[in-house]
Amino acid sequence: MAKRLIPTLNRVLVEKILPPSKTVSGILLPEKSSQLNSGKVIAVGPGARDRAGNLIPVSVKEGDNVLLPEFGGTQVKLGEKEFLLYRDEDIMGTLHD
Fold this sequence. Notes:
By secondary structure, this protein is an all-beta fold. It is 0% helix and 36% strand.
């Protein structure tokens, strides 16, 4: 059974990008390599409202690669996959190639 989570307000659903554990040639990499704590945005909420009732949209969109804080986020498990749910202001930035 497939499930789809649509975040509420200004929340963002992120799938964490795990660094590879070994190279193509088979060399094992240490766990503490210099990889960024990053993830891919899976779903975003519509945004929050200010005091006047105006919608403040979320600053990221589905498919963006984002820089995540080292701690925080709420773990969500859908089927066999694990995701993290963050508020928009907790995401540190977007990553571009």
